[in-house]
Amino acid sequence: MFDLTGSGAKPLQPDDPAHIGGIPLAGRLGTGGMGRVFLGVHEGRYVAVKQVLPSVAGEDQDFVRRFGHELDNLSRLPGEATAPLIASDRDARPPWLATAYVPGLTLSEAVRLHQGPLPAEAVWLLLREAAKGLVPVHDLGMVHRDLKPSNVMLTVEGAMVIDFGVARATEQSQLTRSGMVVGTPAYMAPEQATTRRDLTGAVDVFALGSVIAYAAGGSPPFGEESGPAVLYRIVHEEPDLEAVRALDPTLADLVTACLAKDPEARPTAAELVRRATEHGPFTPPLWPDSFSPDLAEKAAFAANVQEVDPPPPVSVETLNLGKKADPKPPAERRRRVLLAVVPVVIAGGATLAVQLLPHTSDADDPASAAPTFSASAPATPGTDPTGSASPAKSAKDKEKEKAEGEDGEKGAAGDKGDKDEGGNQGDGSGGGANAPVPGTGDKGDGSGGSSSSGGGGGGGGGSGPTEDSDEDAKPPSGAHRYRNGENAKCLAAPFNSPPTTADCNGSGTVWAFRPLSDGSFEIVHESGRSCLTSGPGGILLLSCNQDDSRRWRSAPGGALKSVGTGGCLGMVNGSRITATQCTGSPAQRWTAI
């Protein structure tokens, strides 16, 4: 019999699964309106298995996306930041993930067991440990966005920030819908409460200040309500820190700085670690006697991994016998399958999605100049740009089209678009069918071609730059997909996830080049607010601010060269995107389609 003493889990209920994804389950750690969390055993260690409720996976697409963001973000985070991701299956129905089991208490539970605010030394320890966990998160350009007492775990060794269910990379920190935002009201920063789209790590610092005020004073500094009233106070009023100041004036001053209305005025997580390190404790027992025994009991449970009966093998016969016909028509079944493979995960606690206070962007907001995206999937052979079937081509026609396509591969902006009886045309800016990024081909004569079957004449393109003028080439206008010369897949960032290469018909594959005054350009994602960025953390999507890490220039061979790092955008290991020394290899060639 499995002994759950000290685990914090309750016995499985009759309707609970015995295993998820091959991981045997021992108990239930928690449940909510969106999903359930179970205690499991995987490869000799305890894990927390989060599974979305089937009804949520089928109906709440926003929640499904947040689950996927947790999967993507957890896979990027170092182990010291949070409980590491152990296993997952976003394609399962319903989706699930497993993280390392954290043997501890949430801050909410600890305050309840302590029957009031924690002592000053415990609060300094909490600040130090929580801020330490945020440093690598912010270094990766990510924000947690929902830091609150139930998302901070206290252990015998310190504390850990958990639950990245609504975490985003900073460039992802925009509204899921106009006027909508995700977060917990009492711990939101002003820029969240006013639906500001571009959020930074300062959001987490503000939330951490509120969490520290809760630990030191027993309640959040702007009140515990969950509606518009608390949001108004966060934006317009000062926090109530009397209890914190009575406990420790130095701590109160630091919390006041964390709660500054201006994000730029708040300290960074790294600065908070340095300040908190000046205070103890540093040796066990770290926490008050009121709940230290509970932490010790949980640690003892985690140290002794028990066995759980493995799930029974499922035979082919069993699968066939249990399979039932799907009454849905084929189109509906396909829609459900596509929804199931959209990423998913569990956001614990009272998370709110409401229409909030209006926010007006500044007139000089770079996002206001974002290009308009309108691009269809790559045309199917035998169709014209309107989707109508074109006349069948003879072998001679196909040879002619192939030759003209090769000309287009050589041409850059302004190459001649030759006549094509099949309805394809030169556009005066790309040369032929598919053209590499600007500045990689021969000089064109600027004349657009025409089509005898309704394709229309190409506009005058002007002279295309030669290789010698690659870095001053004019970027292509409009929105395009960019196919890699190595694997024939397209540059992609579905759901604003880290850039990769994927099927050209997939989501997140449309990009626009936004020219800058110095001749370089930004590569803007189809979301309209994020730019391809080359920095120490690799290739990411971050908010567009025109610094060198976001600037690109054309390079020979259809390459894209980072102004910030000097490396060329390329594909490695099948799909991963990076910027390395420019070699002219096919992996660094990008063709607009």
Molecular structure report:
With 593 residues, this protein is an alpha+beta fold. Among the domains are: 105-292, Orthogonal Bundle (Transferase(Phosphotransferase), domain 1); 393-467, no CATH class; 475-593, Trefoil (Acidic Fibroblast Growth Factor, subunit A). It has 14 helices and 27 strands. The strands form ten sheets. A six-stranded antiparallel sheet has the order 1-2-3-4-6-5. A hairpin with a 2-residue loop joins strand 9 and strand 10 (158-161). The chain is globular.
Secondary-structure-derived class: alpha+beta
User: Ranges with pLDDT <50 over ≥5 residues?
Assistant: 166-180, 314-433, 438-472
CATH topology call of the domain at 105-292: Transferase(Phosphotransferase), domain 1
Oligomer: single chain
Principal-axes shape call:
globular
CATH architecture title of the domain at 105-292: Orthogonal Bundle
Strand line-up in the sheet with most strands: 1-2-3-4-6-5
- Fraction of residues in helix: 25-40%
| Distance from first to last alpha carbon | 61 Å
CATH homology superfamily of the domain at 105-292: Transferase(Phosphotransferase) domain 1
Determine the number of helices (DSSP H or I, runs of at least 4 residues): 14
Number of strands: 27
Beta-strand percent range:
15-25%
- Indicate the mean pLDDT: 74
Largest sheet: 6 strands, antiparallel
The radius of gyration over CA amounts to 28 Å
- What is the top-level CATH class of the domain at 105-292? Mainly Alpha
Q: Main attributes?
A:
6-stranded antiparallel β-sheet, single chain, alpha+beta, 27 strands, 14 helices, Transferase(Phosphotransferase), domain 1, 593 residues, Trefoil (Acidic Fibroblast Growth Factor, subunit A), globular, 3-stranded antiparallel β-sheet, 19% strand
